[in-house]
Amino acid sequence: MTAGSDRQHRARQRTRLPLEAVAADLRRAVAGEVRFDPGSRAAYSTDASNYRALPLGVVVPRTPEDAEAALAVCREHEMPVLSRGGGTSLAGQCCNAAVVLDWSKYCHRVTELDAEARTVVAEPGIALDALNTELGPYDLMVGPKPATHVSCTIGGMIGNNSCGSTAQAYGKMADSVRRLEVLTYDGTRMWVGAGMAGLTDPLRTGLRDLTERHAGDIRRAYPRIPRRVSGYNLDALLPEHGSDAATLLVGSESTLVTVLRAELDLVPVPAATALVVLGFPDVFAAADAVPEVLEHHPAALEGLDERLVRLEHSRHLAEQAIRRLPDGHAWLMVQFDGDSPDEADRAAHRMIRAVTHHAGVSATLVDEPEREAELWAAREAGLGATAYPPGGRETHEGWEDAAVPPERLGDYLRDFERLLKVFDYESSSLYGHFGQGCVHTRIPFDLRTADGITRYREFVTRSAHLVTDYGGSLSGEHGDGQSRAELLRIMFGDTVVEAFGELKHLFDPHNRMNPGKIVQPRPLDGDLRQGVNYRPWEPATHFAFPDDGFRFSHAANRCVGVGKCRGESGGVMCPSYRATREEQHSTRGRARLLFEMLEGDVITEGWRSTEVRDALDLCLACKGCRSDCPVDVDMATYKAEFLSHHYHLRPRPMAHYSMGWIPLWARLAAPVAPVVNALTHAPGLRRVIARAGGVDPRRQLPRFARTRFTETFTGSDGLAAAPHGRVLLWPDTFTNNFDPGIAQAAAEVLAAAGFHVEIPDRTVCCGLTWISTGQLPTARRILRRTLRILEPALRESIPVVVLEPSCAAVFRSDLPELLHGDEDAHRLAGQTRTLAELLAERAPDWSPPRISGSAVVQPHCHHHAILHFDRDRELLTATGAEVDVLDAGCCGLAGNFGFERGHYEVSVACAEDALLPALRARSADSLVVADGFSCRTQIRDLLPDARPRHAAELLAAAIRVSECAAP
Q: What is the mean pLDDT of the chain?
């Protein structure tokens, strides 16, 4: 295209609606993805803050140069721009009516690494944990480590000047940045560093002039504390601080420049650590002890109060570690690093001797790595644990991040607690980075009524005066954004805030970079996600949502945005995000779309929304978020609810009939199983059947067993020979029809352990496949029938042993919510047990048979999320086998999901993320254990030589061997 025709094309484009013209030009200029559709805008409408702003559109650049091209188009159309990383900001920095650049999908490359110099150059979209994993082989890491380290990106950490617990040893992100490659809104691209290196002449001249005029004010206004994050880093321009332009730009929240690449200083990974927990009578006494503890130079010094610990305990986080806390009602977690375990332990013991001579102070040295990791995980989960306290009011950020001089922390907390009581907010938990005087909390602000919002404004204003009186900072690491920027005059005074405006004008004279944040801020009580106009649609639902006040709108608004679902390793949540790196395919992104569906502003079709349907399509319904999400979002349940309404009185995908109705097809196929197997596996015909049923033809359909377990089971010996009493063995569809040998093995194990085994006298089903495909009225009918059949066992409190984890999870979780208030539903939930649970509870004296060798174990996602795997781990370990329970996430098949056409690539990608590499790395003689039918099927399909087995099969085989060996 010639230059003249290009101009004509652009002129024609401008005659369209403005956003259509911008989107069209972006698509022509950018190699990455350009999204101006309602679903994408909804997914990026908020961050982890109280604020909401629908973006104009979203650009996902493939390279920094792609972002440069996108910004050029935005500049031509005078569109504001917001550069976004993990989207975990707590002050509203990452939501704006702007074109959002999401760096996290593609721009996560390490471009240079100098291990000897301990420096790295990386793109801004790489997550902190991912970067540290790449640095692991060199025993190096990035110093700061925020609690959101699984998902926060390097670019976001630079934008916020992030810190975390390790800042005690390594400082803020500003202390780790050597140079930044940045792009201004006018298109100037440069590498900047110390001594104003790399700046253009106009910027250098302007900054020197600003510094000369305001140096005295900056020196007077900036508090000399470890955690001053509020405001621009104008103090970095002072000669005594090296006139460092890179440090100046750290913490500028995308309001001055877009960061393209960053050169960072790295630190060695500590060779050894020791964690001490000190107990105190109250949080004030804990804070008073901080100066004395600091004399021992800890690497981390965190505080937490009894409220947080109670909430953590109520949510079953770090239970074993919490039980071992020293006496007290508040605690300090003190970490020491060393070149050896002895060195770290010696430092810990010196501190313990010095501190515990005070009355009321107790100490515990946590010497188990697993308990230490649990405690740190519990501390990092504080935001989620305090969001929805049981029986209490929901809490919010908004004043969650103030910092004061550490030596004044105790007095500050006393005054702050008094202020909380004045406003009836005293139920708030107090915790944080006490070693640097930084206090975190979530406060039960009422952000839905005019009076409540007025009180919120009054409280934060008085809090700003309080922290300023103590010589502190409004923000100790979360930044100003919208929630604190309006209060900066209280902390810095008019002159310095005007200097902020001058700085903004130098870099962004037309106010197009993340406008309304820091400079000329939007009101702290404006743009609230709730606010006085919050009145979401409240639809009737099939699930009761009892933990959400029986309101679907509360469930859809449960996500607080911290982005743990965007982690790239560990746990189960969220497999579809790990496979796609797409915001809308994360738990958080889907929650955002559901919230916007109920708001009705951008998602306007309610249950019929194709945007919500498409976002939920790649949800594997693994329920990983039910346990791994800090606030217990249950996207599998939300998906089932949505699908039920979306397809009400409408044709469904064929897989909903073929896979969703598999219990019926299995029952019909049972008499002619060999014929059905021959047809479904015949060359040519197999693919035709798969396509007709909406199944990906690359999938092998499961083979029906020739004989079902329920047809061959003859029962146990009489009750007299069963000292542990009766047990009902549940013949689930998958075990009964595809792997009946597992049920037979379980019956043998139960009999050997002293149980009288019975099975239902009629065909039964838990309704799982109807639930997962959103056919909820059918699922409820089936579950009511099941309750009628099980009525005798329920009346006698006979345990119901379920071998398939997903079916057990239905009884424990879905059943009491689908049939809420039905006492038999709640009885069955209470009587359902896994094999390992039953043996531990009812036969604690039974010794499992010996199993030699090693076993690699893949827990089913529902087992992990709902049932928990502790009992199963203990049972397998008790056999003497060397047990390796994988932390490999979801297998990717997830019931019907991996069979459905359009899901194969994501299904395999999930398996290849961690599970299959772990199985390939196992020793040749290792057993592979997978209790879930989906897990075994996926492993057999993708790694045929693995030969996965159910734990019941291993135990039964070992029992037979031991019986044969008996004299």
A: 94
